[in-house]
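Researcher:
Attend to token order:
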Amino acid sequence: MTATHLRLPSASRTTRKAIALLCCAGVLAGCQPAAETPEKKPLLVDAVVAELSDYSSRITLTGEIRANTSTDLAFQTSGQVVERFVEVGDKVDVNQILARLSSSEQAADRDAAQAALEAAQFALDQARTNLGRQQGLLDQGLTTQSSYDSASEAVSTASSAVDAAQVTLERSAEAIDQTSLRAFVKGTIIDRQIEVGQVIQAGQPAYTVAADGPREAVFAVDEGVLSDALAAQSFVVRSVNDASSTAAATLSEISPTINKSTGSVEIKMTVSSPPEAMSLGSVVTTSGIYATIQAVVVPASALTSEDALAAVWVIDPQSHVATRRKVELAAFDNDSLVISGGISPGDLVVTAGANLLFPGQPVRVKQEQ
């Protein structure tokens, strides 16, 4: 069998020309220089020049009003409480009766002392009568000097017995009086530790009275804010319930120990003329300066972060490029940052537009336009 050979049609001249043109275009394209990256457009920002200034660190404290002087009141004798006349919050005057113990035993002792006094007084009267008779007989020579001296000695003995009985009666009356608990200062009851029917011992506290007069504001503060600057200044305390009620106060005491449960230190301020709103137990606030440092203060809008740490954008005055820089903050609030480290005087810190910046970003300060 004869083999059949197939002949492919040759490419047309037009096709060959198109391929040649494409190859030339590719070679020419490879010879052209690369396109230049467009220049970054500067971002308009606000900035301030960093300056060191004195910054006073302030602290706001919250505490309560207490009595400048408080006293525990207790019965001077043991017994069972039978009456209670005042409660916490009541005002009391000097010598006002606050509570009573059962006085039946003391009353019995008083009655016995009264009977003993009456018997001693009768014996004294008899002895004096006998002495008078002996005196008359002695004047008439009808008795001896010895009998007269015995009668005289009997009067002295009876008189001493009367005095002793009188003292016993007074003591029994005093014992009855001691079954009544009286206030010896004018003030307010701030605590009660007794109940009717309770048997208490002599000296066991029954009430606590806050004496009228100066009050003190008591605050718990962190040990780190205690400083000479804090101790040297005057304070103004303000009622939380009535912001218009204020009073001048002076630091009077700093506790020498730290509260183990809270880690705080108790300080007391004397409030000499507290208004009515500052009653015992009411909540008050005050503020004060505890330290003054040299720091850079910039608007809070300058704050950004780097590696989860506080940072700000600083502009290079030569290249006009913004660089993020970590800083140390001494304090901050909604309005300002107090920078204690990481920024030098003269640095240009971005204050508006910081959220739009990225490293290497050229910037233009609005004031420079």
User: Anything to note?
Assistant: The two ends are 94 Å apart (CA to CA).
